[in-house]
Specification:
The chain is mainly alpha-helical. The chain is built from eight helices and no strands. The protein has helices at about 10-20, 25-35, 40-50, 55-60, 65-75, 80-85, 90-105, 110-125. The two termini are about 30 Å apart.
Length: about 130
């Protein structure tokens, strides 16, 4: 295990910023990323925040969104739950999905999520992961 770069007290203070930025999911992801960069594990961060490891991973994953996705999220045009799925896609497929979402091509969030899940599976197959 790598040594922590910051004290636990400072880590707790940084973790407090997570709740403060509840309306800003990208900012929350950046806060979590600071803790990860300080050598805190996903489990330790989850404990500091009071959530699950999966929630931490999904939130940090938002940093993988292309700018169009981050902007749509900031403007309230994109649901956080959908953004978490989209962030798992390649940049090209993120662009396709985001343009279609913003244009209103999907019936609802569930329809878009199923489409994204199919793309994630396809990308995994292409990469030989499935």
């Amino acid at each position: 295990m790598l040594p922590k770069v910051i004290t636990e007290a400072l880590a707790k203070a940084i973790a407090g910023e997570f709740a403060y930025h509840a309306a800003e999911p990208i900012r929350q992801a950046q806060v979590l990323n600071v803790l990860a960069a300080a050598n805190y594990t996903t489990g330790e961060i989850a404990e500091l925040i009071g959530t699950t490891r999966n929630e931490i991973e999904l939130t940090v994953g938002l940093l993988g969104l292309i700018e169009l996705g981050k902007d749509a999220l900031d403007q309230g045009l994109l649901y956080v739950s959908l953004a978490r799925h989209i962030a798992q896609l390649s940049e090209a497929n993120q662009n396709v999905v985001l343009i279609r979402w913003i244009r209103g091509d999907f019936k609802n969030e569930g329809h878009a999520t199923r489409y994204v899940q199919a793309l994630i599976e396809d990308e995994g197959t292409v990469l030989g992961l499935n």
